[in-house]
């Protein structure tokens, strides 16, 4: 047998009963590999560079409809991992065709697409199976589209990566949490990406869908996993891939933040606003661990108590207490902001950008200023004291940047300065207001009293991070 044919034969026989043939090529996405490549590249090219989060991506959320409907949204998620180097990709997907309990982990072989065969990481699949207790149910994969639709994107973006396809059955709390914990254990120390395959609400009017999807996105952004699980268990019409999304959130929760990259719905392609399906692209990015400065839970508690007592004493007696901190870190000079809220609404927020005072003094002064000297509000009265909630943000030093793409929403706060004007917005503000990177920049400019496009026309941009607690 000629050498080339021998190699081909050995490759073919290495996939015994483990090759999952393409089911959607020619209908949900192009069957011709060149046409498929052109389409995916076109989608990726349409993603603006300003939408790409910086830092390490632990997981992405991507839709799984036909490419004509959701391919462009999916490209936002996949663009965030372009030029990354993952060894394996775990694809979590819901079961649309086969009802079962637990999860089905594809053990070996590969998934076929027009690009060729995406090989299953059999070793990692076995490790996940061992860590979770879940095995392989062949029927769960045979006609399931929610994994296959992701594979061509994976092949195009990460051509060397292996995959582990996992179909999740009935989205019960025990199933989801077991999968998430098993993923943590099996992937520890490995360079692995998790993909959660999901569409959002189904077949509502555009107005209804956008409202419901925004509520779901807020829960995702805030890692409200218990509430998401409750909605999934009640079979609420929020997303078909609730199990995969929550499992990804739990997998990354202790070390990640969420950046929403793109939301859309099927009406963009169909022009039919009477029955739409929602589509989401998001990235779970690794939060950097600050080595320069940390606060213990006791130190955070001490600062919160100090803020409350300072506000109470000043409002009642117009006095500022003398205070000697117990924690050593509280003597270190730090920038800090104190935010007061009443019944969930902002009641005052003032602080120090630069580390000009010891932390405990910065918190005390900022507490007084937030309560009585925020020009946007009347001073806090005695009757309001019991209703106030305090949030403290301890700032890292400012770092000037030239490239706005280095800003990660949810991780960075912003300071923008020009012509003697300077505005600051804390990291949590962008999340609360659901801003993307460009909106965050524009609103920081407005906060400084500058035109909203000043960040494009010579204004200085500074980023910082914050230890936030309440």
Question: Could you explain how this protein is built, in words?
Answer:
This protein is an alpha+beta fold and 470 residues long. It folds into two domains: 18-286, 3-Layer(aba) Sandwich (Protocatechuate 4,5-dioxygenase, Chain B), CATH 3.40.830.10; 297-469, Glycoprotein, Type 4 Pilin, CATH 3.30.700.20. Helices cover 36% and strands 23% of the residues. The strands form four sheets. Strands 2, 3, 4, 7, 8, 9, 10 and 11 form an eight-stranded mixed beta sheet that branches. A hairpin with a 2-residue loop joins strand 12 (335-342) and strand 13 (345-352). Helix 4 packs across helix 8 (173-187), helix 8 crosses helix 11 (242-252) and helix 10 runs antiparallel to helix 11. Residues 1-16 have low confidence and may be disordered.
